[in-house]
Amino acid sequence: MSAPGAGQDVAPTTHALVELRVLEGPNLYFPRAAVKLTLDVGALATAPVDVALVLAERIGLEGARPGEPESGFRQRFALRAVARLVRAVAQESGTSSLAVRVRPTNDAHQVVVAYPWAHRERARAMGRAVASVLDTLVPGDDGVSTDRLSAAVSVAAETVATSEPGDAPTTLEPRVPVVAVTGTNGKTTTSRMVAHIGREWGKVVGWSNTDGVYVDGVLVEPGDYSGPSGAGRVLAHEEVELAVTETARGGILLKGIGLTRNDVSVVTNVSADHLGLHGIDTLDQLAEVKAVVPRITAPEGWAVLNADDPRVLSMRWVVKSQVWVFSRDPDSPAVREVLADGGRATTVIDGWLCVLEPDADPDPLLELVDVPMTLAGLSHYNVENALAAASAALAVGIPREVVIAGLRSFLPDAEHNPGRMNCFTVPVSDGEVTVVMDLAHNEAGLEAMFEILHGVRPEGARVLLGMGVVGDRSEELIEKIGEIAARDADVVAIGHKEKYFRGRTPEELEGLMRAGAERVGVTAVPAYPTEVGVLSALVGQALPGEVVGLMCHADREGVYEWIAEAGGVPDTAETLAAKVRAARAG
């Protein structure tokens, strides 16, 4: 469990307080710093009706109908009562008004309540004080003392009023233009492309992602900086003239976004990943989290949204900024609607990447075959990433000709896009094999990887895949990875990611992946302790012309070293295009 200074503050002596988390910036609940409480309302859910009515009267919840204990009516009453309790404590402690958001969880006895804060310690005191009132509902030997319950609100308010105020939020006001990128898949590639285009413009670009913080192409702070601290670390470098931040769901949920606003936001897509963590159980809930990024885009800025993803497209209704969509389909109804409302769109017409504006002819930027990241147009996911990056770069003010040059020069290699669809030619006995390395950390990512594997596979050749997963994914997702891998590969093996077991054992992960493979009739899937180990084994059995894929997450540098020692070389854009053409001809 994190220390209080990291945002989490749990008081184990308080029964009702499950978690108190301080969110430093815009978050799922408010566009500014907030406190998120997870409260156990079991005592309220089971309290007699007369006790519930006493609480309702004390906090000014008029016309309350609490319903019977443990009923659906009581659950809804609990949500209203907790919200009103927070407001009552705040008002009686001297706060004239306070916005409050309350949400249910998948546990009927737990709710989440959030409220903005201006002073850290007083906000924490408020959370603990509210929990203390709920604790008075826990019955003693003689039941619940309604007099004590009524007085508890006054005591809580007095505690808050006399607490130390504490520090103000640390949310940063950007001094340079900011492009913020989020989404389930493609956000790292898209943010790297935007940063690359910005450098083509001659700007000193700082960007943060899951690898670390980069300034002008140099890694200055390694680590996962896709959370709120990444933006702060980028802006701490005075020489930075353009900031590009990758914004992951975890940071939004656990700490909030570190900036007050962005100038351009990008949402690539929303698909199944990380479900079941931190109260996010459905795709709609995940989309709501991702929508925080475009919601804080400046009114004069642009929200760049995937028009082909309904959940992303619907975010246009919650933004204050202008809307710029991207779609592979120029005739998409969403594109027409956004243009009719004065927005812009980026799409593909006759094989050209084009920009559309209201009442104007399309502006063709360049052909997709001239965008190396699309792998000669083979990867529709990278087509979408290129459309998103072009939109964001133009939206932030980068000149058209610079955007074109940047799209031409950004390559799918270890220099420009490490770990994402990196392709190599590796010598084997009597010939060569193609190795494709990608993160492929969820279902959509793995299916995108297979699009490439099969797209460069000569007729009659096999696809061999080294699969692996991160341990904090759900059992359903891990099994699904095994199913997709076994279904779409001719040979499949497991390569573990020891740094990312996250509470699971290797045997447990193997069991889940093998269970998924067995759904499609594949059994006896071998396992290797490392990603390098499974790659070596698969390349060792591959025949000339075959394709080996590796889901690589834990030891990217080790894999690069192994490939180099085996005599492998990165594929150039021309080499990849030739492989694609040869596969299509076959």
TrEMBL record:
Gene Ontology molecular function terms on file: ATP binding; cyanophycin synthetase activity (L-arginine-adding); cyanophycin synthetase activity (L-aspartate-adding)
EC number(s) on file: 6.3.2.29, 6.3.2.30
Protein name in UniProt: Cyanophycin synthetase
PANTHER family with a match to the protein in the record: CYANOPHYCIN SYNTHETASE, MUR LIGASE FAMILY MEMBER
Domain Mur ligase C-terminal: 419-548
Keywords: Ligase
Keyword Ligase: yes
UniProt enzyme class: ligase
Domain of life: Bacteria
Keyword Iron carried by entry: no
Provenance organism: Nocardioides marinisabuli
Organism ancestry: Bacteria, Bacillati, Actinomycetota, Actinomycetes, Propionibacteriales
Domain spans labelled Mur ligase central: 181-392
